[in-house]
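Chapter summary example.
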Amino acid sequence: MLQENETTASVVTEFFIMGFPGLLPKYYSLMAALLLCIYIAVITGNSLIVILFVTERSLYKPMYIIMLSLSLSDIGFCTVALPKVISRYWFNDGYIPFYVCLFQRQLIHYFGTLNSLIMMIMALDRFLAICYPLRYPVLMTNRTMRLLIGLSWVTAMISPTISSMQTVQLPFCGPNMIAHCFCDGTSMNQLACADFTLANLIAYGAAMFVLLVPFSFIIFSYISILVSVLQIAHAQGRIKAFSTCATQLTIITVYYVPRFVVYSSSNIPNIQIKSSIKIALVMFYSLLPPLVNPFIYCIRIKEIRQFFHKWHVQRKRISLKVDRLTISK
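The structure predicted for these 329 residues follows.
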């Protein structure tokens, strides 16, 4: 929606979230239902991790502090990103006020940066646990992990804030159609009626910094882990160490590689990707990790499996007691 002022210039007061380009209206309800199911699954799975951590004191360990932080970040990201696009397809309500869009953009990039830092801390934790197993309890205490996680939650705001401050200084006088499922830096900058080259360069530089620095450390960590694992004499020990890291490394790959492709395609002339493919890639790497993380960790981590086994045994005992009381009556 455009609002005319007295000097005949126009100021954008609202943006419209277009969603997936080329999606036919007859599939709108199906898309909304699919995104809603993903959102419910993400909230349910990650909330389960939070509840487990709060209720089970045996999980008060560095690795679970990482999982708790990652779950909270995933809940925050999906809560910021999905409701508006669901509303766009279910109720044809894609309009979002300018400053709400800017706020969504800020949080989208904040949680993306935060996840990158958390995965770097996760790699650090696995690096110390496998490469320095005897010193690990001293090097990585709960207090140290809480400090690292706290710093990541604070410092993750720096890069998105700098980029947002650059964007808010740009004039927006139309059009106001955001070719994306949510407000992000590139989509907003492209709608500015001024030279947005500097804003794009700042956003690209910030994105590459928060991706490349953690990713470089993650690669270093896992190469060191691989070298240490290959030096383990027992095959069973090697299999256990590989199993511990394989899932995390898969999720990290899904998180980083498509991001490099998407960000580079917007800023490197020789790399061109269709808008529909780019948006699909963004939604893929944004939603898949939050969706699968809780279920992967719940299945693979021994303490969580033991918790569910104990909970299942307790339920069976309670059920048997209830049945006996019913029969006795």
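To summarize the output: The first strand starts at residue 2 and ends at 4.
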